[in-house]
Amino acid sequence: MAPAINLDQSDAREYGAYYEPTSPEGADPGYEYFQPTGATVSVWSADIQHGGPPTGLLVRTMENAVGAADGQAFSRVTMDILGPVGLGVNRVRVFQPRPGRQISQIAAELDVLAPNGTWRTAARAVAWRLKTGDSSAIAKTPHPPLPASPEELPRMVGFPEIDGVSVAWGKVGFIGTVEIAGQSGRNGDTPAVWLRPLLPLVAGEETSDLASAFTVIDVANGLGAMLDPREWSWMNTDTTVHLVAPPSGPWIGIDSSMAGGSRGYGASFADLYDANGFLGRSAQTVLLTPSTAR
């Protein structure tokens, strides 16, 4: 599938949020219902959502379900994209496969309303949560903080052509709602990029730092690639993030690199940072497909 890139398209900040709460007729009380806005649209197709907003929405749903009173923190989140996340009404539900006082697992699913009125599960997120404690005496991270903070760098909205980024994604859909600042990276030939979403995840709500971070981490797959979208597509099927600390603040630094295999698939790996330093790592499975739009 060739990317729906239009460099002249105005950015999507005209929308108030990525999702608007809604209450369709016949709504099941076991779900929350949302209407995705144009700010969620993918660069790969104007008919589907970018992976970032659905990931953020599912993390927000899990976070709201557990609260913070149990003394546990999200340590690993895996988001599986089970099919196209469409722009019709979305509904989400949360469940807990494994409760526990020290270790627990929570999960959430996102369904999309099809034109025929049926629901299809399009995405599922599963998170491990661990009891927090004081381990500062042995704290160690593999990398120091990124050399420059976003406040010290030129910032822009969307992904225009910048040094080291192979694709000028412009300001299409979701990309037009993300502010970025780039600097030299440590992984491969691509830059490290600070990102933050400029819209609230859900209209009328304040987005948590955790949900905000997961709204942009999916972008690592695009940042780490050095491919021409006129020749190849590299859509990811999942995103797994291991955290060593809770994200702090709206900015997330992503230092990404994609490994392409010779059998039609690969993987994107990224080191993640926030204002306090190294935050964790992400990994994404990537389907490598020759583009039909040559």
UniProtKB/TrEMBL annotation:
This is Thioesterase family protein. Residues 42-129 form the Acyl-CoA thioesterase-like N-terminal HotDog domain. InterPro entries: ACOT8-like_C (IPR049450), Acyl-CoA_hotdog (IPR042171), HotDog_dom_sf (IPR029069), TesB_ACOT8-like_N (IPR049449). It comes from Gordonia iterans. It holds the Pfam family 4HBT_3C. Residues 172-287 form the Acyl-CoA thioesterase-like C-terminal domain.
